Amino acid sequence: MAVLRVLKYGDPGLRRRASPVGEVTPEIRAVIADMTETMYDEVGIGLAAPQVGISLRLIVIADEEGRGVQAVLNPAIVERGGETTGEEGCLSIPGVFAPVVRSAWVKVEARDVNGQPLAINARGLRARVLQHEIDHLDGVLFIDRVDPVTRDRIKRKIKKDGLREDASRHAFAL
Ligand code: NI
């Protein structure tokens, strides 16, 4: 296993639409293992393959304490409802946090690490993580979903200061 380099905001790799995962080959399993290790190393609770430069529809997610890691292949949100606002961060945009409006619950259909059908009903933080990571598969970043005034402020700050870690608030980066 290896810790992979996480692409940072501005890298075109973060803006591509990723391709579906086909057969779960040993190479895909190795990618999942590396992504899991990378997520732990970065103290994140979610990571999408495009964030490590792999343009595949594959994410790994963990619970709030970083436990219960799950690989989710080719996820699609098939139902969603409610609305909730919560602060998000992203391992690809270190040091930036902003409130994002998301669906309060989602139903996701996907494949698991064995290629078997996987259905996930999620609410709360898990629903937020899934929406954030699935956005990554379409080249969408959380700052695309904040209000325009906040987005402008974030972009100006990044231009002026660059991207800086804020270790005290790292735990909820996705
Ligand atoms: Ni992210």
Distance from N terminus to C terminus (CA atoms, Å) equals: 20 Å
Query: Averaging pLDDT over every residue, what do you get?
Result: 93
Give the count of structural domains: 1
Q: Briefly note the structural class of the backbone.
A: alpha+beta
Reported for the largest beta sheet, the result is: 5 strands, antiparallel
Tell me the series of helices and strands, N- to C-terminal: HEEEEEEEHH
CATH superfamily: Peptide deformylase
Please tell me the CATH architecture by its name.
Answer: Alpha-Beta Complex
Q: Could you outline the blueprint of secondary structure elements for this entry?
A:
Elements: H1 26-41, E1 46-48, E2 58-61, E3 70-81, E4 84-89, E5 97-102, E6 105-111, E7 117-123, H2 124-137, H3 148-161
Antiparallel strand pairs: 1-2, 2-3, 3-6, 4-5, 6-7
Bound molecules: nickel (II) ion.
Nickel (II) ion binds next to helix 2.
Explain what the structure shows.
There is one protein chain. With 174 residues, the protein is α+β, with helices and mostly antiparallel strands. The chain has a single domain (12-169), classed as Peptide deformylase (Peptide Deformylase). It contains 3 helices and 7 strands; from the N terminus they run αβββββββαα. It has helices spanning 26-41, 124-137, 148-161; strands at residues 46-48, 58-61, 70-81, 84-89, 97-102, 105-111, 117-123. Strand 6 and strand 7 form a beta hairpin. The longest helix has 16 residues, at 26-41. The mean pLDDT is 93.
